[in-house]
Amino acid sequence: MAQAGNRLQADIDSGAEVGFELAEKSARRGGNGARMYCYRALSGEFIQQRATMLAGLAAHGEARQLLEGFEGLDRYLVGMDGAADLQRMKPSARAAAALMLLLEDVFEEQTDFEPRPERVEAALARLEQSARGDNTSEVTLLATLHGLTIASEELALTKGLTIAQPGALRGVPAQAGSETGHLLVVFSAGDGEDLDEVLVRGKEVLRDLLRALRLFGDGRVTLGGIAWTRVSATARWTSVALGEGGRPHGMLVVSAEQEDELRAFCNLVSRRAPHGNELAWALRRFELGCERTSGYEALSDHLMALRALLEPEGPASGLLAGRIASLCAMPEGRAKLTKRMIKAQALERAIIAGTASEQASGLNLARDVADHLRALLRDVICGHLDPDLALLADELLRGQDSAEEQAIGQDAAAEAPSSGVRHACNQEPADDPLERLAQSALPV
Q1: Are residues 69 and 151 in the same domain?
Q2: How far, in Å, CA of 164 to CA of 245, rounded?
Q3: When you count CB atoms within 10 A of the terminal residue's CB, does the N or C end of the chain come out lower?
Q4: Can you name the residues that pair with 184 across neighbouring β-strands?
Q5: Are 12 and 35 in a shared domain?
Q6: pTM of the predicted structure, to 2 decimals
Q7: 85 plus 59 within the same structural domain
Q8: 437 and 305 in one domain?
């Protein structure tokens, strides 16, 4: 180790430089500020470029021979480099590769190559743990979660899926745990599963979680664009791209009393998520709207989702606003909500035409549309509402018309001379199951 460090440092002293890459840092609380970046030293690339030179050092051959007989060599290679193709590597090549990984581990992100005792000890400890096979079968995927706050240090949602405060977990990547204002979500799988298969399944689990959180709250939660994975508790973390998930707006706060409710809700949404129908398409449009940077940009996504669910006849029918109001408002408030949804459609046309300026009133209107869509999607997925929302809305509207006709009849009867006979209209009205159904669709 000392010989390799001295030789690498000699190159630095002679004018060679370690390269850098620009890495995105986690946003601070709220996530509304400018993105933050930091420079990360590419010390591993610097070492790999000098692999042939390092192989000529006197200590290299001795160290390689020792590693060839190391019992945990294969586990170490897989743990430190999940892409290692062990079947095509001879024992000497495996030992040489492990030696390079050990050097990279010791000097990771350093711009000098002075061996630091604590880092050497930690790197050798990881090598030794590979021989014991400690936790080598567990694959972990870790990501940052923005726009959500929980009361507990950790919240286990299902087996292998946990949300946690950054300080509650040990050994997380520096980029994931160094900032404040976000949570960590960890997915783990074991039993010797293939790394690529676990990553695919882990990303699906994270997408399911994000969908459930957006339906549970107000659509402000998002995942960071970068995640990290490792194949054992002793392995290095490797970064993987998750893709853009939008930016959070505000904060969804989950109290300790709500954590059991959130756990049950996430499991329910994961099991009942629709596939291959109008509801699935509307749910995807809702998610796309949640990822827009502006409420104005999201308005068309959310209105298109509502049209798919509530206006199969097409926009020319003009039925959307009234049907939304029938499902999302009590009878006395339906006229007001109908006018508001008509106004939202007019705002969409103005946005498309480029004549709408972003104002607080318009953003509040767009947010109301998103809230009504979220409530309807949530209640259909949970089984509180029938998936045929257009039919259900029309039934509610017909019921309202009948009630109004009955009220007119009551007014006429009240004005007629009394005969002393008890009329049926003076009896208590029967409980209307459709009315209860309408109340269940109200946004929370």
Answers
A1: no
A2: 19
A3: C
A4: 144, 164
A5: yes
A6: 0.64
A7: yes
A8: yes
Provide the 8-state DSSP code for 364. H
The rounded distance, in Å, linking the Cα atoms of 231 and 134 is: 11
Beta bridge partners of 230: 140
Same domain membership, residue 88 and residue 170 = no
Distance between CA atoms of 297 and 201, rounded to whole angstroms? 31
Query: How many domains is the chain partitioned into structurally?
Result: 3
CB 351 within 8 A of CB 296: yes
- Same domain as 124, residue 33: yes
Q: Are strands 222-230 and 238-241 parallel, antiparallel or unpaired?
A: antiparallel
Residues 4-19 have pLDDT tens digits of 888 888 888 888 888 8
Write the single-letter amino acid at 348: E
Dihedral-angle region of residue 308 (phi above 0 means left; psi in -120 to 50 means alpha; beta otherwise): alpha
Domain presence at residue 421: yes
Residue with the two structure tokens 């021989």: 131
Q: Give the ranges where 180-319 is alpha helix by DSSP (H).
A: 195-216, 259-272, 278-290, 295-310
Number of neighbours of residue 293 by Cβ within 10 angstroms = 10
Domain boundary among 132, 162, 182: 132
What span, in angstroms and rounded, lies between the C-alpha atoms of 166 and 29? 13
Which domain covers residue 33, as residue numbers?
2-132
DSSP structural state of residue 107? T
Q: Is the pLDDT of residue 439 over 90?
A: no
How many Cβ atoms from other residues are within 10 Å of residue 144's Cβ? 27
- 4: Cα within 13 Å, side-chain hemisphere: 23
- Domain end, chosen from 195, 223, 256, is at 256
pLDDT tens-digit series, residues 51-93:
888 888 888 888 888 888 787 777 677 666 644 555 567 888 8
Tokens of 21: 């890459």
